[in-house]
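Why do we care about 3D structure at all? Because function follows from shape, and shape follows, mostly, from sequence. That is the central idea of this module. The next example makes it concrete: a single protein chain, its amino acid sequence, and then its structure expressed as C-alpha cells.
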Amino acid sequence: MIKLIVTDVDGTLLDNNSNLSDLNKKAILESRRRGIEVILATGKSILSVLYLIKLFSLELPQVTLNGAVITDKNLGIINAIKIEPRYYLKAIKTIKSKGYSPLVALVDGKIFYEKYHPDMDHIMKVEQKITKTENIETEYFSLNAANIHIAIKETDPLDRYLRKKFSGKINFIRSGKYFFDMLNPDASKGNALAFLLKMLSIKKDEVVVFGDSYNDLSMFKESDLNIAVKNSYPEVLKQADIITDENHSSGLGKAIYKYILKEPI
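And the structure:
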C-alpha cells in the first residue's frame, strides 16, 4: 500500500512553463484526501514551492535545494548540509575569475548574486527570486551556503573544468539545460529522502517516486516504485519501473490515478 508520493517539481509535477495542470492538481488533492502523504523533492528553495505546500496542505517536511536542505511547512530547517566554507570560497573565486556570475542559495532558501547576467533569467523563469548583494565572499555566505548555481550549458568548458578541479570536494548536479549546481558531496535528494523515511518510519515499498532528471536518480534507490515522465533524460527512463506521459500532458496525474488510486480518470 502506497503511503507516500515523492515528486520532483520542475519537469515532472509542473509543465515546461512551470504551470500545474488541472489533472496533476486533482490527482495530488485526491491522494491527500485519501491520506496519502506528499513530499516535494526539488532543486528549488522552499520559498519557491510554498504555494504548492499550501495548495496541497502538505504536512510533512519537504526536500529542497537538491537535498541540501530539508524544511518543514513553517520554514523551520530540519536538516541542512552546507558546502564546506573553504571549498565554497575557492569555488566562488574560481567561477568569478573565469568571467562568470554565480548564484548562491543559503540554507534559509534565499538566493543571492553580485553581478547580473542574462542567463540568470532561466532560474527566474521557474519562479526563483534572486537578490543582488555587494559581496558573496563574506564569512556569512561561506558559513551558510547550501548551493552554488551557474546558468551554463553542459557544453560550456566551465562545467568540465569545475568538475575536475573540485572532484571529491563538491558534488555537481545538472537538472536542466541551464541548471548546473554545486553542493556538499553528502547532499542529494536520495540522501534527504532516506533521512526522512527513517524519521517517519516509512518503508521503501510504501513509497512511489516521480522524476525526470539526473538529480532524481538517487531517490530511485529509496523506493520500490519509480515512475519517470516521458520527457525524462535517457538514463532516468532506463532506470524507471514505469514510464508515464510527458510533464506537459499530465503524466504524473495519469500515473497516480492508474497505479496508486487505481481508478479511471
